[in-house]
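[job 0412] stage=fold_complex status=start
inputs:
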Amino acid sequence: MDYKEILAQYRDLPGGIIEAFHAIQDEFGYLPEEAVLEAARGFAIPVAEAFGIATFYSMFSVKPRGKNVIRICESAPCHIAGATEVIAALERELGIKMGESTSCGRFALEFTECVGQCQGTPVITINGKPYTNVSPAAIPNILAEYKQA
Amino acid sequence: MNNNINLTIDNIPVTVPKGSTILQAARQVGIKIPTLCYHPDQAVKANCRVCVCEVEGSRLLQAACSQPAMEGMVVKTRTPKVIEARKTILELILAHHPQDCLNCIRNGNCELQDLAAEYFIRDNPFELKRRGLPKDYSTPALFRDPDKCILCRRCIDTCSVTQSVNALGLQNRGFETMVVPSMGLDLIDSPCVMCGQCIHACPVGAIGEVEEIDKLLAALADPNKVVVTQIAPAVRVAIGEEIGMQTGELPMDVFVAGLRQLGFDYVLHTNFTADLTIMEEGNELLQRLNEGGTLPMFTSCSPGWINFCETYYPDLLDNLSTCKSPQQMFGALVKTYWAEKMNIAPENIYSVSIMPCVAKKYEASRPEMDDSGYRDVDLVLTTREIGRLFRMSGIDFTQLAGSDFDSWMGAYTGAGVIFGASGGVMEAALRTVYEVVTGETLQDVNFTVTRGIEGIKEAELDLAGTTVKIAIANGLSNARILMDQVRNGESPYHFIEIMACPGGCIGGGGQPITKANTKRVERIEKIYAEDEKMPLRKSHQNPEVKVLYDEFLHEPLGEKSHELLHTHYHAKNKKYL
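[job 0412] stage=fold_complex status=done
writing structure:
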């Protein structure tokens, strides 16, 4: 599906550009420049404003990134529970640093604030799905299912 | 029904119309409340918080710029709590500001610097954190220094609401927030038209004109160069503001004498080519009316407007008058006609224009502007830059005897003078076109309907039985309204004057920092007062323009005119609109 088709679905919705950006990002993993330009045209707002929306929300990325977005909670409870070790394990397993994407385009590593799963710290999410009580040893298993997909 | 509100501010009773803010009420009784993001001609933003006050019964401090006055309200603006809060707000803003005042273009004319002084900021407890953002010198007209930005968003308001250019927006959120050109690119890649209105909107030094004073100093010091200057119509009324005088106070002949003190070899006037523009553009209009040319015809004096048309209305470029702006007509003539008349080798002439405008810097740099065989205009300095030079040179204008303009391109009429105000080009054209068409002498030259800062003005004129409909817009959001009419085939007009800047050139991006439209109105009044005093007030009466046609151009729209005084426009094909 191209940007125009996705955008058309949300054009009549109040504040629809945010929904449209989510849909585009689900499809492409990030918001490509052409998508932001097309959204500005589609919603009849200046490019400067569409870009402002795309960069205001931390869940949107205007830079290319890996298809499977892994977010690690950097809030205090996860930090105390050992998020630092989980981060080290993820970086080691994927061979990238936080904020980077793997060269194969399969994974991206990002920080997030609390995702509301403090009963099972430390927490990571992959494409929005939470994994609780994550230990460094569990990382290879968790990643395995995404490596195949 | 009573539409008034009674309140007290610092124990002073105030009555204001319903809907007024605390800030407006305070100003009415002479109580000064500090502001940064507030701008008198813009919507309330309330993001800087420096205007906070105590309101009795309210637990939190209230922002005076946004809080409506209410019946019986008791406001305190000078309590220890208020002063402490304002100081902390200023300290936090300063902790994110480079504090590089001595090297700043706005040193001595900065709202943040003023407040830091007024609130005696001494030992800022917050650690200075510079963002380390690069400066943007991508345009030849204006620069951005985002490190100095205090995120008040006044520039965004001016760019998008007043001008509808939409070059600026926000990127990111929280501490990461930045004001950026479209898509975070360089200004030159955004739809920026270089009008420079953002410079006036900026309370600090985050945006300014590209300064080129050093180039002038080098030319003045070069014995082989004959440095010739032209002064734009809107400069004189405002230059006084740069040198401690009132608006319009510096007499023209003393201004000329001051320029001679700086070392200019010849002082000439853009008003001369403003009169010439009327001869060419007036005849172009008549030709289009008589021969079925593209109508409505748009004026083409304002380079910010030209950039806007090339950016947003490339389908309407045929409507633009082919006349170059007075600056560029001057440039093309000074190295041909004038050089010949003065017996000066054109390659030795260094042509400097003094402009109320930053887009003129870009216009002079356009590759096609070399019809004289040389760069037609070598250097463009703004009113502010000339003000800096005057201050640096220490000239005492109260002691200076006046001096006349030099010959052959220095004479002008009142019609040239009023080019500096919105509606002036139209009025000047009407004064001449009327007499050319009817063959009668115009009894009252004042077409007052064209005057004033109102966004869109329109009128009808009877020209020997033909009704000519005209419209005038200042500020590009007003221009957009007229352009959309033309694009949709709904424009009833024959002739449209557009000035990019609110109020016309008197409010140009190169003028002394203009904090409110009231200052623009004041300058407009001084322009028409100057016109009233001129012995000649119609462009076709300009004796030196007559000589120019007799000896050189021969006729308006003739071969020589087309070679030197007319131009073509190009679609900008900008991607990030």
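[job 0412] summary: Chain A has two domains: 3-56, 68-147.
[job 0412] exit 0
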